[in-house]
């Protein structure tokens, strides 16, 4: 392997590790471990074996899976939303509804409605995509290495329904230094004054009593 390939590999690995490391996950658990627990409980829930509350069960209760067949998403979403959120597409820069949107409120997952990005953490990155320096609650997203474009990036997914949101980079502003580069097609906007009512409905639909404490941050000041 040529020296520049080694340097390039090292650089990319450092980038991914630091992007994921900086943001971390709930309880600082490794990604794989948390996902495994979620998978186990999702399977148990399907087979009706979830009465017995194990440590895994209570953990996964905070991350229920909102799983729907492909036909459901095709019907619920517009073609553009479906292409980006369910097929990991990317909208054109400066084309989406929210890159230049400045109202006060919360941006929610277009598929399952999870409150993911607060307008207070939105900034103008100049990229043409809505950009945020943090998420509402890091337990509501999943990060994955993404090599699909030939460059290694860190993909951001909704943890509840696995919708593709965009990517996170290490060149964001303070205080986190992160830049969540998100597709407008993957999100909806809810004005802050409507959040209490919205959160109630969303929690009911997704079944998220365990996240009550975490979502308080998006309820009006
Ligand atoms: Zn979602």
As a percent range, the share of strand residues is 15-25%
Fill in the CATH topology.
Answer: Metal Binding Protein, Guanine Nucleotide Exchange Factor, Chain A
Specify the CATH architecture.
Beta Complex
- Can you write the helix and strand succession as a string? HHHHHEEEEEEEEEHH
Helices, by number, come to: 7
Q: Assembly state here? A: single chain
CATH superfamily: Peptide methionine sulfoxide reductase
Q: Could you give a short account of the major beta sheet? A: 6 strands, antiparallel
Structure description:
The radius of gyration is 18 Å and the shape is globular. The chain has a single domain, classed as Metal Binding Protein, Guanine Nucleotide Exchange Factor, Chain A. By secondary structure, it is of the alpha+beta class. The protein is 34% helix and 18% strand. A hairpin with a 5-residue loop joins strand 1 and strand 2 (115-118). The protein has seven helices and nine strands; from the N terminus they run αααααβββββββββαα. The protein has a six-stranded antiparallel sheet. Helix 2 (31-47) crosses helix 3. The chain binds zinc ion (ZN). Zinc ion (ZN) binds next to loops.
């Amino acid at each position: 392997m040529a020296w520049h390939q080694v340097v390039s590999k090292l650089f990319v690995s450092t980038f991914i590790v630091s992007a994921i490391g900086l943001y971390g996950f709930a309880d600082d658990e490794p990604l794989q471990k948390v996902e495994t627990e979620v998978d186990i409980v999702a399977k148990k829930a399907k087979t009706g074996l979830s009465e017995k509350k194990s440590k895994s069960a209570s953990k996964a209760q905070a991350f229920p899976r909102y799983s729907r067949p492909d036909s459901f998403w095709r019907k619920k979403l517009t073609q553009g939303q479906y292409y980006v959120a369910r097929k990991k597409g990317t909208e054109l820069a400066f084309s989406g509804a929210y890159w230049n949107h400045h109202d006060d409120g919360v941006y929610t997952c277009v598929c399952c409605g999870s409150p993911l990005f607060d307008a207070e953490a939105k900034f103008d990155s100049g990229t043409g995509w809505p950009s945020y320096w943090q998420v509402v609650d890091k337990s509501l997203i999943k990060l994955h290495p993404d090599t699909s474009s030939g460059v290694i990036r860190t993909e951001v997914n909704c943890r509840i329904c696995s919708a593709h949101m965009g990517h996170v980079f290490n060149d964001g502003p303070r205080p986190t230094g992160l830049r969540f580069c998100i597709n407008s097609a993957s999100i909806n906007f809810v004005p802050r004054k409507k959040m209490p009512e919205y959160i109630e409905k969303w929690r009911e639909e997704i079944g998220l009593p365990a996240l009550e404490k975490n979502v308080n941050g998006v309820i009006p000041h």
